[in-house]
Amino acid sequence: MSNQQEVVLSVRNLKQHFKSGFGANKLVVRAVDGVDFDIHRGEVFSLVGESGCGKTTTGRTIIKLYTPTDGEVYFMGKRISAGTLNNKMTIKQTRRQARAEIKELKKAMSEEIAKLKSSGATSSDSRMQSIKQSYESKINKIVEDKNNAIEAEKQDIANRKRDTAVHDNELMKNMQMIFQDPIASLNPRMTVKEIIAEGLRIAGEKKDEVIVKKVHEVLETVGLLPEHASRYPHEFSGGQRQRIGIARALVVSPNFIIADEPISALDVSIQAQVINLLNDLRDEFGITILFIAHDLSVVEYFSDRIGVMYYGKLVELAPKEELFKNPLHPYTRSLLSAVPLPDPRYEKGRTRIKYDPRTKHDYSKELPTLHEIVPGHFVLANGPEIAQYKKELKA
Amino acid sequence: MRDNKRLIVEDLTISFRTNQGLVRAVRGVSFDLTEGETLAIVGESGSGKSVTSRAIMGILAGNAIIDKGQILYEDQDLTKISEENFHKIRGDKIGMIFQDPMSSLNPIMRIGKQITEGMLINGKRLKRRYNALIHRSKMVVANAKAEKKRLRKIYWYDWRLLRRTGKINVEDHLEEVDDKKKALSELRKQYKQAKAAQNTIIKEGKPALIAKKKEAKATVKKEWKEARGKHLQIIKDVKAKLASASSEEQKKVYKQELAEQKENLRRIKRVTKKEAVGRALKVMDEVGIPEPKKRLKQYPFQFSGGMRQRIVIAIALTADPDILICDEPTTALDVTIQAQILELINKLKEERSLTVIFITHDLGVVANMADRVAVMYAGKIVEIGQAEEIFYNPKHPYTWALLSSVPDLKTDERLVSIPGTPPNMLFPPQGDAFADRSRYAMKIDFELEPPMFKLSDTHYAATWLLHKNAPKVEMPEIIQRRIEIMTKQTAKEVSER
What we know:
heterodimer, A: alpha/beta, Rossmann fold, 3 domains, 8-stranded mixed sheet, 4-stranded antiparallel sheet, 12 strands, B: 497 residues, alpha/beta, 14 helices, flat
């Protein structure tokens, strides 16, 4: 269904590792460890998972707040950032392999020469030369291959680095982010107008009249009044501040918004206001949204497709109805069972499914991959598990 | 205590003095708690739910005045007792879990120290015994003193307010000025009378207190001497055995016993470090922190959010409180960890028959935890009842609004958000505070405050819609449908089980 639609953003094997410490204290946190997904035009794609599973990091890497460790991000068909870990690994691997091969060849050569010497034949000198020559040519070929391969990888690294370093204002203007904390994400010393206009100015708008007009327009779009423009953030309530954050993202008329838990810091009644606002924006402007959240009831209400993350990996990805009807991965089930509903009778009898990856999976024989079980429904699983999930689906 | 009521809050009214005037944060809240019950207080931020709980804990901000009402706990009125006496209740009898586990722990102190700190500070057993003996006579004097202070605070505030309003155009309104003067002197007279009454109480109470103190001192000394003598005798015996012991093995056993007895002797006087650590380990195990021995030596940053919240709960539990106040304990956590913490609180509640006040704005959590629910708006309880009554038969428009603004897993339509903002409590609205934002507001709602209408023995709601002359209003369709779906679903699930 959605496959025919235009892909706005695609993420390929994205990895984001954070390193800290040296020597014995060295610690690599694999915040995002190989994530793949596509987002189509006009849809709301949600990433859910518990805190620390890397969903926010994914969002921040996509909008280039971090440089990815590995993998690629394509936005409107153009590669906007790419990591080089894989290339570096390949280079290391090639070098190691070449070294091993050369070592083996040299060993074989010396053995043959020794054999020749012990046989004591008279024509050994010329034979020795020819043997040496043949081996040397073999070694040279390996070295050359190795150098070529490394050169290619290095070229690729340079390309990737260049793509990441290029800052295409025109393109990146189309991607905006709404941050989680409406209090911390607004500069307390700037007026609302300055906050909202900052993006416009960076995008190259210089005329003050245009800026003021646009700011007033966008304030009205998010349900604030034009006279609010001259006030400071502390004069607003939580919900209004979040609206300012949304207005700031909207002012450059983007077609893709990353909303990083925009409602988890808000009160219930205000949550509803902000969700309704986002919903209206989607219907009105056809904005594509990457929605990051941990509240499944909101996600279910708001999004078209959902990706469930667990410790840096995407464990399940499916359209909303499919995911809630047939959750396959045990982590998704555990997450779904933890959502409290405003229904006391149900709540009193609800049992939470516990998820422990060490006991639920046996990955000692075969490592899991993201596998499409039914069209559009992906699960992270290995061979036996796929068979089991398929059986469960039919039942 | 009346029946098995643990805590009774009656007509509690709290305001904050600010430069703009009085902010009426809580306006006449009444509820009670029976033993082992969970009461959930729900409402938007600024509805006064946290202020109510802070009043119960006695940790209101300095500019707060308790205008009216009382909080009865074990025959004491918590609004009147002095700070010193509150030390014995706060933490000890009434524990509290705060909202943000990130900021309620000290980042540069090891977890072990933070958990045992309270036990060690409150651990002077002889002093506690002494304090318990003189408690009653001390309370008489202390209460009178606190009351005096409160009277003075209110008097000065009223006096200043009166004078300030009298300042305009003195010449034109000489009569008014006279009135003002009269009012001021009247105020002063009243204050002096009230003060004198308290003074006589203090005068009479002081000699009695001194006599009681002497008596208590003697009793404690006697008790201590007796216990010490007993223990010293035991230690002596063990020492004798040790001296006469022949084999190495026996010596070892006796040495151990000696150390134990010495520790016991120390424990009569105070809570020893060993005892506190042992207790901390037990409580940590209880709240589900794995490897407590190793964890004791770690710092807060080495724990995840859920684990930190568990530590906060552990700290609250070390004192073995009767009442536990949870102020949005899961708002900062995500669903899976929230579910774990809620399960933990429920488990502890059952094991220790804790009485819990649970403050939150998440209705899903309320459904999980609460036996009874109080919905607060603009400093008032607008609806109170059993959880099932509130969720399946809500009556107040504000409860409807709250319920319909929650997205749930089954609906697809637009959410009904509550229009507008909560009223400014500097100028509390006349009539029903929610009338401005309510679709169901009638004329009377803007004029007269609705009383609590009784729906059943446990279910009350304050809205004019329940008056017999009011037009018949059905609750919004979205909620009706949802309740229908919910009841069907639960019936199905129950039958499946």
